[in-house]
Design a protein that fits this description.
By secondary structure, this protein is of the alpha/beta class. It has helices spanning about 10-20, 65-75, 90-105, 145-160, 180-190, 220-225, 235-250, 290-300, 305-320, 335-344; strands at about 5, 25-30, 30-40, 55-65, 80-90, 105-115, 120-130, 130, 135-140, 165-170, 195-200, 215, 255-260, 265, 270-275. The protein has one domain (about 5-35, about 65-120, about 140-344): 3-Layer(aba) Sandwich (UDP-N-acetylmuramoyl-L-alanine:D-glutamate ligase), CATH 3.40.1190.20. Helices cover about 35% and strands about 25% of the residues. A hairpin with a 2-residue loop joins strand 7 and strand 8 (about 130). The longest helix has 15 residues, at about 235-250. The radius of gyration is 21 Å and the shape is globular.
């Protein structure tokens, strides 16, 4: 049976939030943009060329997604020393991504541009009122060149000595992790730096990168362990307990098994620990909650905290962001402490 761990107190939480301001974290992954285009039929006209009605955008806004959302969560929590490693295309969206990161003082020498066979990952979401129309995606046909994979891993290798922790984000099927060359070179970096902590959150390749600590949700765990999610769409407590122990034994590294509103299980070399979910009032929006959880875990581990404490912080960060509706939210230190005071 999993151990139920007592929560930290408010003083310990506030001390941790102060300490994470000095940690140095690298983020390797799929840097994406979420584009929100608000359509207004009042501005439509008939195209002279096609004789078809146009679609008029009244307002537009862009926010980082994927690895970019992890960066934004870390920045909002107070982490100031961040380095980004990824690939963009030679397109306006890529220029926007680089400009955005630089404007937030994120180190970007590791953000490279591939001029052919690569488009910056963008998810364009047209809305009419509250209704989202068909999404338009860029980057679904990307092919990372071997030379790009090599150059990107050279940047990672040069920077790694100055980092306390490295987050590995994999979120899209045609991203940097789709390259066998990149996988091989990054795997070599991990094996050559056993003193460094690598924290992997991978949607499609969770078995890659031996030596990494893993954050994995129960759906991903069910696929690897051959478990049924059941009619309710989630694993039972016993299934999660067995899955966490199995994955720890399989990978020989700590495992964070996230369960949405039901909290998180942590399996390390001491036991399986149960971090219960936070009871929230009112509607919630789970979009981006996994990135928020990951950022909280990463910040605490980089500050030298144990895995249980890291999961508790991740739980709080995600608890703040899911209450921010129709947006990929982030959590400030003040919001994290306030949620702790309300629910702790």
């Amino acid at each position: 049976m999993p151990q139920h761990d007592k929560s930290m107190n408010q003083h310990e939480l506030e001390q941790l939030l102060r300490e994470i301001t000095t940690v140095r974290i690298g983020i390797i992954g799929d840097f994406c943009l979420d584009a929100y285009w608000i359509l207004d039929p009042a501005g439509e006209e008939i195209s002279v060329e096609t004789k078809l009605p146009t679609r008029a955008v009244s307002t537009q806004r862009y926010s980082p997604g994927g690895a970019g959302n992890v960066v934004m969560n870390l920045l909002t929590m107070g982490v100031r020393d961040l380095s980004a490693f990824g690939m963009v295309g030679s397109d306006p969206f890529g220029l926007y991504m680089l400009s955005f990161l630089k404007s937030h003082n994120v180190e970007t020498p590791g953000m490279l541009t591939q001029t052919g066979d690569w488009s910056t990952h963008v998810y364009c979401k047209p809305h009419i009122g509250e209704k989202e129309e068909n999404r338009i995606d860029f980057g679904n046909f990307n092919l990372l060149h071997d030379s790009s994979a090599t150059a990107l891993c050279e940047q990672i290798g040069e920077a790694i000595g100055n980092l306390d922790l490295i987050v590995i984000n994999e979120q899209v099927q045609r991203g940097i992790h789709n390259s066998s060359q990149f996988q091989s070179l990054l795997g070599k970096i991990i094996s050559e730096n056993p003193q460094k902590m690598f924290l992997l959150d991978s949607r499609h390749t969770p078995e890659q990168y031996p030596g990494a600590v893993r954050k994995i949700n129960e759906y991903e765990a069910s696929r690897i362990c051959g478990l049924s999610m059941g009619s309710k769409g989630f694993l039972s407590d016993d299934q999660c307990n067995r899955a966490a122990a199995f994955l720890y034994e399989r990978w020989s590294r700590p495992v964070f098994l996230t369960r949405g509103p039901r909290g998180c299980l942590v399996c390390d070399n001491t036991a399986v620990h149960n971090i219960t979910g936070i009871a929230l009032q009112g509607p919630v929006d789970p979009v981006g909650a996994g990135d928020s959880m990951l950022a909280g875990i990463a910040a605490a581990l980089a500050a030298g905290r144990d895995c249980v404490t890291a999961a508790m912080l991740g739980n709080l960060v995600a608890g703040v962001t899911v209450q921010k509706l129709r947006q990929t939210g982030t959590a400030t230190p003040e919001e994290i402490v306030e949620l702790f005071k309300r629910t702790g």
